[in-house]
């Protein structure tokens, strides 16, 4: 029982910390077809590798703008485009 309480408390603390990080960055203006993410470009899909990986976000990640779902990063222009526009 104690382990369950500790696990729940840890999960709740991580959730609150994550929400605080996201809320702190709400004022960031990202380019077209991008949104702010605490993981920034970690495992972001690109024209060359369009499949998104699901690696864990590092705790020390600075955060930043990344492509919205359905878009990939064009390495030539550094813009988020539809895969057909690569």
From TrEMBL:
Keywords (A to Z) from UniProt: Disulfide bond, Protease inhibitor, Secreted, Serine protease inhibitor, Signal
What does UniProt give as the signal peptide span? 1-24
Q: Where is it chiefly localized?
A: secreted
Q: Which InterPro entries match?
A: Ser_inhib-like_sf, SerProtInhib-TIL_Domain, TIL_dom
Top-rank taxon: Eukaryota
- SUPFAM superfamilies reported in the protein's UniProt record: Serine protease inhibitors
Q: What's in the GO CC field?
A: extracellular region
Location relative to the cell: Secreted
Identify the residues that the record assigns to the TIL domain, covering every copy.
30-86
An example of a Pfam family matching this protein is TIL
Q: Which GO terms describe its molecular function?
A: serine-type endopeptidase inhibitor activity
Q: Which family does it belong to?
A: Belongs to the serine protease inhibitor-like (TIL domain-containing) family.
- Protein known as: Chymotrypsin inhibitor-like
Annotated source species: Ceratina calcarata
Gene coding for it: LOC108630746
């Amino acid at each position: 029982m104690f382990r369950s309480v500790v696990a729940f408390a840890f999960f709740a603390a991580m959730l609150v910390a994550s929400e605080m990080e996201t809320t702190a960055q709400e004022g960031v203006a990202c380019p077209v077809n991008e949104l702010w993410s605490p993981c920034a470009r970690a495992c972001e899909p690109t024209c060359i590798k369009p499949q998104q990986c699901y690696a864990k976000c590092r705790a020390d990640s600075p955060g930043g703008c990344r492509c919205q779902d359905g878009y990939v990063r064009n390495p030539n222009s550094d813009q988020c485009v539809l895969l057909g526009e690569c």
